[in-house]
Amino acid sequence: MTPIHGRLVLLMPFQNNSGNPSLDWIGDAFPDIFGRRLAGADFLPLGRRDRLYAFDHLGLPANFVPSRAMTIKIAQILDADYVIIGSYNVRNNRLTAQAQILDMAALTLSPPIESQSQLSSLLDNINNLAWEVVHKMDPGFQVAEQTFRAADGNVPPGAYENYIRGIISPTLPERIDHLKVAIRLDPNFFPAWTELGLAYFANEDYNLSASTLGHLPRNYTRAAEADFYRGLAFFYTGNYLEAENAFAFVAQQLPMPEVLNNEGVAASRRGMPAASFFKRAIAADPKNPTYYFNLAVTLDRQHDKKAAIAELQQELKLAPKDSEAKNFLNQLQNPPPPNPDPGKAIADLDTPLERIERSYNGASVRQAAFELEQVEEMRIASLPPTQRAKALVQQGDQFLDRGLILEAEREYHSALNADPKSAPALAGLAIVRERSGNFQSARKQAQASIDIRPSARAYLVLAQIDYASKNTAQASNQVKKALQLDPHNAAALSLQQKIDASGAGTP
Predict the structure, then answer these.
(1) 276 belongs to a structural domain
(2) 30/143 same-domain check
């Protein structure tokens, strides 16, 4: 378990000391990968967008290179507990990088942590540094180094370079071009899909934005952010049903007030009841005048003018200069007199449209999600050891289903700390190790799990390792044991079909 405080880490671009401006992009690669590794290690990283927010707050340009004193000021604005700073150099195609940890509470700087590699092994170099930094900040971190390194999969260097060049490009056309190349080189590199979809959105190409963001799986880490903008893209093209569905998905993850508001606006555009969405948004954020205005519009459409007036009066207390709200309130309080001539039509006054929230506060969402996770950790910590282990295994399984092997292993270790004899935790750990290519450890963990309580999951790990080693007869034997325990196990049945098709199974 981790403490609630002391986990916010500001990540700064590394300084290029090579004298070669064409390598400037590498400086942004360090905070990008550090961010994903630190998030997997249960820290809350503050990355590029958070830095740009602080720069804007201080009136600094996006490409500003802060001094040490200014870095501390930026960290204070963002309430960071630590700052990771560093530099790199390239000589004879060899990369040397250094990282240091600035402790904001003590205002002390750690000694440099160094990593060297060939320039072609950039990602390995950054992962080396991230591994050392995580252990400095959390000496009890238990995840295996091979799992840590395998967390991003095998991203081709060219795809990663174009991804970084894309996110730091000063113009949208350049950004889009680089990100398209990154996706062409690695169609499964979801960060590039996300950034490309957001670039299309910024370029007001809403159809392309919606279709691009639609490539992301629902369990992807940034799926909520992607669907928020996907919902806006649908909304701007008049596809209100798809917009409502996208916002509803985000609200299921985190019922943020801006998301509830937008779900209500999309529902209202389809002629559906929407008051409940705006009431929930007000309950979550009672200081946002937009939600009162939208509720007033909906109540007026429901012919509840008294309630609509009350909401508008509250809205104007928060936004007294809102001319549209003033006119709407006057319209409700001073309706036109009855038509004296029924034979002559009088035009009805139009009710204004609800207002959509156009920005996604990623920092606020991440902070809220992080706090919810910490609260859940505290709840689990209060359970008896056996129940605690079971709950932690369930969390590990959820991470595993999303392909987050670093986070999954972290939870399985926590489960084993609570109950060293947890067979499901050992089986989960075996799956993680098998996926990261650590077959020797995977076999050891799977066998330990079977020794405590045989399970299809553990036997299947052994079967997959044997199959990968071309020991198909033994793999078939392990699959049969798995199917005896779980006859409908889809993975075991699929592996058995492969073995049978090869004609190498046991008689």
Answers:
(1) yes
(2) yes
